[in-house]
Amino acid sequence: MLQVEQLTKSFGDRLLFSDISFSIDRGQKVGLIAPNGSGKSTLLRILLGLEPQDSGSVTYERDLTKAFLPQLPDLPEEGTVLEACFSKYDPIAQLTLRWELAITQDDSTAMEQLLPEMEASGAWSYEQRAKEILGALGIHDYARPLKGLSGGEKKRVALAGTLISQPDLLFLDEPTNHLDLKSIEGLEGYLSRSTMGLLLITHDRYFLDRVCNHIIELDGGKLYRYKGNYDYYLEKRDERHEEVEAARERALNLYRRELDWMRRQPQARGTKAQYRIDAFHALEEKTKVTHSTQQVELGGANIGHLGKKIFEAEHVSKRYGDKVILNDFSYIFSRRDKVGIVGENGVGKTTFLRMLLGEVTPDSGRFDIGETIRFGYYSQQAPTFDPHKRVIDIVEDMAESFALPTGSNIERISASQLLTRFLFPPERQYTPIEKLSGGELRRLYLCTVLVTAPNFLILDEPTNDLDILTLQALEEYLLEFSGCVLIVSHDRFFMDKVVQHLLCFEGEGKVRDFPGNYTLYRAWQGAREEEEAKHKEKKTIIPSEPKRPNSTRAPKLTYAEKKELEGLEGRITTLEEEKLAIEQALSAGTLTHAELITASERIGVLINELDELVLRQLELEEKTS
């Protein structure tokens, strides 16, 4: 479908990539991985014809249809959700839109007029696909105006419109940013089943692993390709780095001997062999690092003195009109507490953070903050740096030097040294803010938050736009951090690695304190939903009025069946009591990680056994009626 040959792109003296080549075939789902600022989004724009390349070619298959979702989608100011989802350039989309509007308005005359056109154009499959995609992304109110939608809601609408067109080749740039976990899982499932070709930029490692079957990596201006998912890529990338490092070590050993030879003075009337001099310079090139070994250094995670009293929420309630954010919420933060916050978009997670910071006043209750607490707040909103200032100006405005803990000592470093640790080399430190990539801007923002040495970190969607190298460094920093951490994030991998328990915003002001990470919560939630579905199904199959048997043929239970029925009643009661006890233990927050896994597995066994016993009980009782 797509063939890229010897593509090169640079900005001034800065080379992004050189002579890269790759292809995408039908059905391939390719993840593009690279550090922030190395040219991922630029490469995407070149492939789409939105930006010129310096050299090389991009060739598409004839009559190929393609679609692109940028990081920040551009939706119209006016109109409804449904109108934004259906392209005005697609006649079948517009026909389906008119049909849906007729249904919404209950306009039978319009439906009768549109019915022959729907039949003739085969628009029913389009309508079915549209509803499947909208439902998977949690979009149900088709008539809702676009004006007033949240950032996450706008992203879902734009994503739905991109997917509904069902192109042959789909380009997605950070599609999971600002989506809630339910929407991410719905998108993940849809793309996994789809036959579309895909080129995807994302920091979401679970998403990469479950959707992509090929990975391409931009590293040091070169491109490397891996045929497999993200886990496979990690394994093979490490092998490649080890091989390169081993070859470099061998070259270094030889280089030392040749350097000694080069430094020797030639004997009288003699000269050094030119071929050996040329070979020396070629060897010198081989000793240079050929892959990116830079790592973000976030400094020490030791926060110094932190008092016994940290932070307490006491019977806090908050609502906006009919929408309840919190209802009588209480919680006590402890030292090293690492809490994740999950919930659907619009449920009030960011409002909750702003209440903790004192930016929003609760309707009732209070927050009691310890005297030694120093907050560090990383907002999901783009930082308001002066676009004309240089990178180093932003940091020097805070201080000329910084004290960073390193083990038991305090190290003072300059603003330039600090930026180098955050992967801003000296030549990049004098770049105007307006010329930074989205990821570089977020990395600079993270730098300005962490150097203030907070002991209570509040992070609102910290993984958005950060590259995987920075995410890994941030994860390690937070694991060693001795203060408190409160995180709102839709990155499941990040949450699983960092948090110890969750505050789950379930709507209507209800917040569940769940003792475990996100994967355990989803397993527990899935078991609960499955149990509720089975219970509902059992209710529908129970006959409301069993037929009365003929008096001449009154069926009776055998002695063995009577004993079995008596035993069933006792056994069901015992199992239900055990299940209730486990559910209460899960909600209490007292179980260890191993006990949580055992309890979750036991609930699944109990549910299956109870189903079988209840059905057998119904069967025996029916024979006695």
Automatic annotation (TrEMBL):
<dbReference type="Pfam" id="PF00005">
    <property type="entry name" value="ABC_tran"/>
</dbReference>
<feature type="domain" description="ABC transporter">
    <location>
        <begin position="311"/>
        <end position="533"/>
    </location>
</feature>
<keyword id="KW-0648">Protein biosynthesis</keyword>
<protein>
    <submittedName>
        <fullName>ABC transporter, ATP-binding protein</fullName>
    </submittedName>
</protein>
<keyword id="KW-0694">RNA-binding</keyword>
<keyword id="KW-0699">rRNA-binding</keyword>
<keyword id="KW-0378">Hydrolase</keyword>
<dbReference type="InterPro" id="IPR051309">
    <property type="entry name" value="ABCF_ATPase"/>
</dbReference>
<dbReference type="InterPro" id="IPR017871">
    <property type="entry name" value="ABC_transporter-like_CS"/>
</dbReference>
<dbReference type="GO" id="GO:0016887">
    <property type="term" value="F:ATP hydrolysis activity"/>
</dbReference>
<dbReference type="GO" id="GO:0000049">
    <property type="term" value="F:tRNA binding"/>
</dbReference>
<keyword id="KW-0963">Cytoplasm</keyword>
<dbReference type="InterPro" id="IPR032524">
    <property type="entry name" value="ABC_tran_C"/>
</dbReference>
<keyword id="KW-0677">Repeat</keyword>
<dbReference type="Pfam" id="PF12848">
    <property type="entry name" value="ABC_tran_Xtn"/>
</dbReference>
<dbReference type="GO" id="GO:0019843">
    <property type="term" value="F:rRNA binding"/>
</dbReference>
<dbReference type="GO" id="GO:0006417">
    <property type="term" value="P:regulation of translation"/>
</dbReference>
<dbReference type="GO" id="GO:0003677">
    <property type="term" value="F:DNA binding"/>
</dbReference>
<feature type="domain" description="ABC transporter">
    <location>
        <begin position="2"/>
        <end position="245"/>
    </location>
</feature>
<keyword id="KW-0820">tRNA-binding</keyword>
<keyword id="KW-0547">Nucleotide-binding</keyword>
<dbReference type="GO" id="GO:0006412">
    <property type="term" value="P:translation"/>
</dbReference>
<dbReference type="InterPro" id="IPR032781">
    <property type="entry name" value="ABC_tran_Xtn"/>
</dbReference>
<dbReference type="InterPro" id="IPR027417">
    <property type="entry name" value="P-loop_NTPase"/>
</dbReference>
<dbReference type="GO" id="GO:0005524">
    <property type="term" value="F:ATP binding"/>
</dbReference>
<dbReference type="InterPro" id="IPR003593">
    <property type="entry name" value="AAA+_ATPase"/>
</dbReference>
<feature type="region of interest" description="Disordered">
    <location>
        <begin position="532"/>
        <end position="553"/>
    </location>
</feature>
<dbReference type="Pfam" id="PF16326">
    <property type="entry name" value="ABC_tran_CTD"/>
</dbReference>
<comment type="similarity">
    <text>Belongs to the ABC transporter superfamily. ABCF family. Translational throttle EttA subfamily.</text>
</comment>
<dbReference type="InterPro" id="IPR037118">
    <property type="entry name" value="Val-tRNA_synth_C_sf"/>
</dbReference>
<dbReference type="InterPro" id="IPR003439">
    <property type="entry name" value="ABC_transporter-like_ATP-bd"/>
</dbReference>
<keyword id="KW-0810">Translation regulation</keyword>
<keyword id="KW-0067">ATP-binding</keyword>
